[in-house]
Amino acid sequence: MKKLFVAASLAIFAGGSALAETKIGAIFDLTGGLNIYGIQQNNALELAVEQINAAGGVLGEPISVVSYDAQSELTKYTQFTTTAILRDDVDALFAGLTSSSREAIRPIVQANNVLYFYPSLYEGGACDKQTFVTGSSASQQLDVLIEWAIQKYGPKIYIMAPDYNFGTISAHWVHEYAKQYGGEVVGEDFLALTVTDYAPTIQKIQQSAPDFVVALPVGANQTGFLEQFAAAGLKEAIGVVSTNYGSGNQQVVVSPAAGEGLIASQGYFQVVDNSANAAFVAAWAAKYGSSEPIVSVAVDTWNAVHLWAAAANKAGSTDIAAVTAALESGLTFEAPNGTVTFEPGSHHLRQNIYIVEGDANHSFNVVETFEGVAPAYENAMCDLIKDPAIATQFTPEGM
Amino acid sequence: MEADFLATVLLSSLSSASILLIATIGLAVVFGLMGVINLAHGEFLMIGAYTALTATQAGVPYLLSIPIAVAVTMAIGALVEVLIISRLYGRIFDTMLATWGISIAFYQLAVLTFGTVSPGIGMPQISVQIGDYSLALYPLLMNVVALLMLGFVYLLMTRSVYGMKARASIQVPEMARAIGISSSRVNTLTFALGCGLAGFAGAVLLPIVPATPSMGFAFVIKAFLTVVVAGPVTLTGSALAAIGLGGGASVTASFLTSVAGDAFFFIVTALLLWRFPLGISARWRRKL
């Protein structure tokens, strides 16, 4: 019922304050299959706006929010992006979780020249003048994770990934970094999101005898893989590492027997220890309670709103050219996940990558922190300072 | 190919087929006996899983939580039948639309009640070693569960008074009413039974598939196709279709890729429906 109330109060908030100077749009999945992420993204945005407004707002005016529920449906993203731009005339848009939602939004923000923040971890490579990405990219996370895992477990790698671009591009990076750090991919399996029975995958893993498995389970069903892997008695002999385990609080769903010892790497986990995170977690708990751990896309959204507000204040205007210039000036923010910095050319964040290990209480312990990891692939491919006209998603060669 | 690999593939494919059959049987009973396709079947499975989960969290032993899940889903199923389905008999597309709507409502209700993540109960950490390969024990047990379910439904339909009434009501409804069978009550019971079987499936599969609001989606498509391929002979048809489609897909996935396994499932389904538009059992003489 709490969530109903939040949604209702959002609607009132969205309708009531049309006079404020600055207005931002939020399109997230508040209902439907993806609301495991969308509700937290929206909560983080509300919390950030509340905090910024309490501290004087943007350019001396409070920010107002127009919020939409994309209902986990792609067509709604297209529709609401157009509405937010044409009817509500937003100064900046914060929206999307899946890569398909981002790719639905980008042509519209490009055509209308509106600032767009994409707050989610993803496969990487998105590049255009209007889009700013606050999540970590696959190569950013996998670079440090694969090197770490090869040292810890050994060189032989098996990949279990979802059968769409996040999975296939991530798998490509595993191959690349395996080569770079002296590892070898001994097998891989791509799975549809509806698979619930992982016995065939588990047999193939045993057949190819890897030192560790890179598991990228997406969605509720694929967490079943981790249960079945553990129950087959393989967890002791074969390590499991992941770039997205925990991103949707899978550690809560997975039983301690299966979750203990799993390795995950991401730009944020709630257990990260710093003062900005302590303040953030306390403010979140006061407003939303602490029944569900905060996921990384929530912090990505929080960072996006704060970075936009800082850029607008720095530029002295909400005009897109001025704010973009401020965002491209090496803007930094003391975020819950450590210091984050926008890379001027690629519009991606230089940020910490944390490697954590699952414990027996549905939570994590930080094993290692890699500070200020650059989005190396995006920086190499995408230079919007030199060529502002680029509008594409770079994918590794051969994909 | 080593013998131990073949043996594990065979065993686990058999349990894949059994898992599919367990998830399908309730849908097959409702379709076979009432001509109603219940697209909310997956959500009843989800309700069963959440009921069992809630019960175990409250301290009830897991085995006892299964009958609780069956009772709860049967009650909700009966309510849905009386309020909605009973008004739509003979209108197959309307019932599909109505049950699809119910599924969306149940899904969102689960999100509001349980949130988007709940702790799972996990699988018993017992495995069986075959040569170089080890298999989790719990999925293998599903073979036994599937056989017991088939046996239960068969006995219920052939040996109980309810079963006779149910078959009479569906085969010759006018005559059944003429000899005093209240076919509307029988239908309520049949629908509730189908939902109860779905609830049983959700509870018994809970260690393998964690309870989440969206878990129904994963099952309903394959369960639906299995029922359509099976055709009018509910039990034997469903069992054969589940072994052929589910087991075949699992074997394919073991030797090739998981995508190939899924492709096998859907291509064979399409081919079978092309050759047997009314299902593989359309011309069989047996009735169950």
CATH-wise, what's the superfamily of the largest domain in chain A?
Response regulator
Q: Kindly report the oligomeric state of this protein.
A: heterodimer
State the order of secondary-structure elements of chain B, H for helix, E for strand: HHHHEEHHHHHHH
How many individual β-strands of chain B? Answer: 2
Distance between the termini of chain A: 45 Å
| Count of all domains of chain B | 1
Structural class of chain A: alpha/beta
Summarize the biggest pleated sheet of chain B. 2 strands, antiparallel
Low-confidence region ranges of chain A: 1-20
Describe this structure in words.
By secondary structure, chain A is an alpha/beta fold. Helices cover 43% and strands 22% of the residues of chain A. In chain A, helix 3 runs parallel beside helix 4, helix 5 packs across helix 6 (165-180) and helix 12 packs across helix 13. Chain A is globular, with a radius of gyration of 20 Å. Residues 1-20 of chain A have low confidence and may be disordered. In chain B, 74% of the residues lie in helices and 3% in strands. Chain B is built from 11 helices and 2 strands, in the order ααααββααααααα. Chain B has a two-stranded antiparallel sheet with strand order 1-2. In chain B, strand 1 and strand 2 (133-136) form a beta hairpin. The longest helix of chain B has 32 residues, at 3-34.
